[in-house]
Design brief:
alpha+beta; 14 strands; Phosphatase 2c, domain 1; single chain; 8 helices; binds calcium ion; globular
Length: 336
């Protein structure tokens, strides 16, 4: 968790915004597409403050930059189903992903994964574990694995692929991941927790985004970066309430406090977004170790200069490290 965070785009444009927000807290509810804006204010159900491990500046001297292996060999990129909406098939093109421990932390607590769930739907996720020596890396791994297991099973069990069905599927898979982390924390008497953001992309040009925590999902359209998800951090809420400026939030000592996380309560509120993606769009999922070290402007420049998603991931991580690398940085980039 970087202690300095960027809040470049705390609100989303409305009107022509391709993103629909579903801010329902009810795991069973399906909310019709509307121009609702997300309600980031605390509704009283999510008052758990999760204090993340402060970074250890002394570790910078001891810990070399170690890149964790990608969860798939390069060849698996060829397995990405082709067709509209899921990007061009072919090695190294369509989706990229990377995780890096950074230049300060000793442990990489992030996790990520992507996987085609069937011929027309693929799931992508990034999780940022919290707790330091309280097994944050286990929390992020359990959350990601459970998300994919649950989504895979649920997708096999449904015949409809309409918006409410897929949105409900994603919400329930996120909730199942939350319960798995809660259960493991109880079993191990641990306060483990994690962020979890995910994108379920259907070949018919729809993406369903889910988020808990302050990992982010961006839509990159015509070179412009738009933050789809909203951060569930104390400073993000204070900015939205007008009590902090974005500049103050960036250097705020409480920048590492989350107000919502996976693993903290048995039934977590999940933000859902529906994005009507277009060919040429890119979807970026990343942990705060990445977005906290690179300005939106620089991110846009790097993305524009690197059409190959794996190349873009490499340059983005290198840039985060060059700018300090104060936290683990993890990202998945999808070319639609
Ligand atoms: Ca982090």
């Amino acid at each position: 968790m970087a202690t300095t965070k960027k809040q470049e785009t705390p609100t989303k444009p409305e009107g022509a915004d391709p993103v629909d927000v579903d801010d329902s807290a009810d795991a069973e509810a399906t909310v019709g597409d509307s121009d609702d804006t997300a309600a980031p204010a605390d509704d009283g159900d999510e008052d758990t403050l999760v204090l993340q491990e402060p970074m250890n500046p002394d570790a910078a001297l001891a810990a070399p930059t170690v890149e964790a292996p990608a969860p798939f060999p390069d060849d698996s990129l060829d397995a990405m189903p082709g067709g509209s909406g899921l990007g061009a098939p072919g090695k190294g093109f369509g989706v990229g992903g990377l995780t890096d421990v950074g230049r300060v932390r000793e442990l990489n607590e992030d996790n990520w994964h992507w996987e085609p769930l069937n011929g027309d739907t693929a799931l992508y996720a990034v999780a940022d574990g919290m707790g330091g020596h309280d097994r944050g890396e286990v929390a992020s791994q359990v959350a990601v694995e459970t998300l994919f297991d649950s989504a895979r099973l649920r997708l096999e069990a449904i015949s409809e692929r309409d918006v409410p069905t897929l949105r409900k599927l994603l919400r329930e898979a996120m909730q199942t991941a939350n319960r798995a982390v809660v259960t493991m924390g109880e079993q191990q008497d641990s306060n483990m927790g994690t962020t979890l953001c995910s994108a379920l992309v259907h070949k018919d040009a729809d993406a369903y985004i889910a988020n808990v925590g302050d990992s982010r999902v961006y839509l990159v359209r015509k070179g412009e970066l738009q933050q789809v998800s909203q951060d569930h951090s104390l400073v993000a809420y204070l900015v939205q309430l007008g009590e902090l400026t974005e500049e103050e939030a960036r250097n705020h000592p409480s920048g590492n406090i989350l107000v919502r996380s996976i693993g903290s309560v048995p039934e977590v509120e999940i933000d859902l977004f529906h994005v009507a993606v277009e060919k040429g769009d890119r979807i970026l999922l990343c942990s705060d170790g990445l977005w906290g070290e690179i300005t939106d402007h620089d991110m846009e420049s790097i993305l524009a200069a690197n059409p190959n998603p794996q190349d873009a991931c490499r340059v983005l991580v290198d840039t985060a490290n060059a700018n300090g690398g104060r936290d683990n940085s993890t990202l998945v980039l999808i070319n639609i």
